[in-house]
Design goal:
The structure is a single chain. This protein is mostly helical. 51% of the residues lie in helices and 10% in strands. The chain is built from 6 helices and 3 strands; from the N terminus they run αβαβαβααα. Helix 3 links the parallel strand 2 and strand 3. The protein is globular and about 50 Å long. The mean pLDDT is 89.
Protein backbone atom coordinates (compact mmCIF):
# COMPACT_ATOMS: atom_id res chain seq x y z
CA UNK A 1 0.00 0.00 0.00
CA UNK A 2 2.75 2.48 0.95
CA UNK A 3 4.53 2.08 -2.39
CA UNK A 4 1.29 2.78 -4.23
CA UNK A 5 0.80 5.96 -2.19
CA UNK A 6 4.34 7.14 -2.92
CA UNK A 7 3.51 7.30 -6.62
CA UNK A 8 0.32 9.19 -5.86
CA UNK A 9 2.18 11.89 -3.96
CA UNK A 10 5.16 12.17 -6.32
CA UNK A 11 4.99 15.42 -8.22
CA UNK A 12 2.15 16.81 -6.14
CA UNK A 13 2.18 20.59 -5.67
CA UNK A 14 -0.66 21.06 -3.17
CA UNK A 15 -2.97 18.84 -1.15
CA UNK A 16 -6.41 19.91 0.04
CA UNK A 17 -8.40 18.71 3.03
CA UNK A 18 -11.95 20.00 2.70
CA UNK A 19 -13.40 17.86 5.49
CA UNK A 20 -15.47 19.58 8.13
CA UNK A 21 -14.48 17.02 10.78
CA UNK A 22 -11.52 14.72 11.28
CA UNK A 23 -10.19 12.53 14.05
CA UNK A 24 -6.61 13.10 12.90
CA UNK A 25 -5.42 14.55 9.60
CA UNK A 26 -3.54 11.47 8.39
CA UNK A 27 -3.72 12.65 4.79
CA UNK A 28 -2.10 15.94 5.82
CA UNK A 29 0.77 14.07 7.45
CA UNK A 30 1.18 11.78 4.44
CA UNK A 31 1.33 14.74 2.07
CA UNK A 32 3.75 16.67 4.25
CA UNK A 33 6.03 13.64 4.43
CA UNK A 34 6.27 13.89 0.64
CA UNK A 35 6.90 17.66 0.70
CA UNK A 36 3.45 18.74 -0.41
CA UNK A 37 2.12 22.03 1.03
CA UNK A 38 -1.37 21.71 2.50
CA UNK A 39 -4.57 23.74 2.35
CA UNK A 40 -7.25 22.72 4.82
CA UNK A 41 -10.27 23.92 6.69
CA UNK A 42 -9.36 25.04 10.20
CA UNK A 43 -11.29 22.33 12.02
CA UNK A 44 -10.76 20.57 15.33
CA UNK A 45 -8.24 17.78 15.70
CA UNK A 46 -5.42 17.97 13.25
CA UNK A 47 -5.05 20.67 10.65
CA UNK A 48 -4.17 23.53 13.00
CA UNK A 49 -1.54 21.34 14.66
CA UNK A 50 -0.03 20.23 11.34
CA UNK A 51 -0.19 23.38 9.23
CA UNK A 52 1.72 26.56 10.02
CA UNK A 53 -0.10 29.13 7.87
CA UNK A 54 2.14 30.71 5.27
CA UNK A 55 4.98 28.28 6.00
CA UNK A 56 3.87 24.80 4.94
CA UNK A 57 0.36 25.62 3.75
CA UNK A 58 -2.77 27.50 4.77
CA UNK A 59 -5.79 27.14 7.01
CA UNK A 60 -9.17 28.44 5.92
CA UNK A 61 -12.35 29.00 7.91
CA UNK A 62 -14.47 25.85 7.67
CA UNK A 63 -16.99 26.06 4.85
CA UNK A 64 -15.29 29.00 3.10
CA UNK A 65 -15.09 27.48 -0.38
CA UNK A 66 -13.91 30.70 -2.00
CA UNK A 67 -11.19 31.09 0.63
CA UNK A 68 -10.12 27.49 0.07
CA UNK A 69 -9.82 28.10 -3.67
CA UNK A 70 -7.87 31.33 -3.08
CA UNK A 71 -5.34 29.53 -0.87
CA UNK A 72 -4.93 26.69 -3.37
CA UNK A 73 -4.05 29.28 -6.01
CA UNK A 74 -1.77 31.03 -3.51
CA UNK A 75 0.26 27.85 -3.01
CA UNK A 76 0.43 27.04 -6.71
CA UNK A 77 1.61 30.54 -7.63
CA UNK A 78 3.94 31.10 -4.67
CA UNK A 79 7.49 31.66 -5.93
CA UNK A 80 8.70 30.13 -2.65
CA UNK A 81 6.82 26.86 -3.09
CA UNK A 82 10.08 24.92 -2.66
CA UNK A 83 10.50 26.42 0.82
CA UNK A 84 6.89 25.52 1.62
CA UNK A 85 7.61 21.96 0.52
CA UNK A 86 10.70 21.80 2.73
CA UNK A 87 8.72 23.23 5.67
CA UNK A 88 6.09 20.54 5.08
CA UNK A 89 8.69 17.79 5.36
CA UNK A 90 10.12 19.36 8.52
CA UNK A 91 6.65 19.64 10.07
CA UNK A 92 5.95 15.98 9.31
CA UNK A 93 9.11 15.04 11.21
CA UNK A 94 7.56 16.48 14.38
CA UNK A 95 5.06 13.61 14.17
CA UNK A 96 7.67 10.86 13.75
CA UNK A 97 7.69 7.94 16.13
CA UNK A 98 10.91 9.19 17.71
CA UNK A 99 9.58 12.71 18.15
CA UNK A 100 6.34 11.53 19.72
CA UNK A 101 8.22 9.13 22.00
CA UNK A 102 10.41 11.99 23.23
CA UNK A 103 7.30 14.05 23.97
CA UNK A 104 5.81 11.15 25.95
CA UNK A 105 9.02 10.77 27.91
CA UNK A 106 8.95 14.47 28.76
CA UNK A 107 5.34 14.18 29.96
CA UNK A 108 5.84 11.01 31.94
CA UNK A 109 9.27 11.91 33.27
CA UNK A 110 12.08 9.61 34.20
CA UNK A 111 9.72 6.74 35.03
CA UNK A 112 9.69 5.76 31.36
CA UNK A 113 12.87 4.30 29.92
CA UNK A 114 13.33 2.98 26.40
Amino acid sequence: MKKRLNGTYDGGKVAVLASTSEGFGQTILEGETHGIPQVAYDINYGPNEMIDPGKNGYLVRSGDISGLADKIVAVLTDPNIDQMAEAAVNKAKTFSTESIWQKWQAVLGEGVKS
